[in-house]
Amino acid sequence: MQVIRTYVPDSLQNYNHLAVCEQTGDAAAIDPFDADHLLEVAREHDVTIKAIWITHEHGDHIRHLEELKARTRAPVYAPLTCQKRFDADIWLEDGNRLTLGEQTAEFWTTPGHTPGHGVFYATEPEPVLLSGDTLFNAGVGNARSGDPQTLFHSIERIVERANPDARIYPGHDYILNNLGFTLSILPNLDAAARLRQQAERETPDTRTTTTLAQEAGINLFLRLDDPDLISALEERGFDTGDREARFIALRRLRDQW
Ligand SMILES: [Zn+2]
């Protein structure tokens, strides 16, 4: 499944994505913020929106759900855990498979950012993870509408299930802020400093995306056993007894940063 990423003008730094079956040109539009913009991108790439996939219930991820559905007649697939929040045609449960043209993707429930959140994972020809607001490049979602403990378990499950080479396509362009946070806690993390230099030279449209393996080098929420990170949390007075405690401490620091 090829992923076409587009930065949505006038949005809350949202990325929208088209997951595309290269054989048939069938596309799934993920979290439509702007129907006009997505239809234009689909036209430019000569693909047809045949499905709409939703990661979660926040307004900026379902903003043009109804409009895009009306204009494409594409069915809406969404997490079953969002059932009372908006309308969809097919409600998804953890492990459900979705067909797009001749290819398939898998749906995983990943609550924590919100109670309803899920992500889409495909492995052919390259592994990709459409991660919504659960896992970001160099960070994780906030837990203001959910809870950090649940988010911790969802992130751990993603790392267990996904191929380390999976490329991460989150719902927002937050990489610069996230790397700033990483470097505020671990100033000597060279991989993060190098990636920040690179990202500063790029625009939202050209911004680098990371793989899960790269994330292990730069994303503090995936480095919970790093002795330097544990020391940094202890210096700030946090309980660092287990991975979950360290994750929650980091999430709190990120909220205050
Ligand atoms: Zn959100």
Please explain how this structure is put together.
This protein has 257 residues and is an alpha/beta fold. It has one domain: Metallo-beta-lactamase, Chain A, CATH 3.60.15.10. Helix content is 35%, strand content 23%. Strand 9 and strand 10 form a beta hairpin. The model has no long low-confidence stretch (mean pLDDT 96). It binds zinc ion. Residues 56, 58, 61, 113, 133 line the site of zinc ion (ZN). The site of zinc ion has 5 residues, from loops. Its cofactor is Zn(2+). One of its GO terms (molecular function) is metal ion binding.
Describe the secondary-structure layout.
Layout: E1 2-7, E2 15-20, E3 26-30, H1 35-44, E4 48-53, H2 59-62, H3 65-72, E5 76-79, E6 90-92, E7 97-100, E8 103-109, E9 118-122, E10 128-132, E11 135-136, E12 139-140, H4 148-161, E13 167-170, H5 175-185, H6 190-201, H7 212-218, H8 227-235, H9 243-256
Parallel strand pairs: 3-4, 4-5, 5-6, 10-13
Antiparallel strand pairs: 1-2, 2-3, 7-8, 8-9, 9-10, 11-12
Bound molecules: zinc ion (ZN).
Residues 56, 58, 61, 113, 133 line the site of zinc ion (ZN).
Cofactor: Zn(2+)
Family: Belongs to the metallo-beta-lactamase superfamily. Glyoxalase II family.
Protein name: hydroxyacylglutathione hydrolase
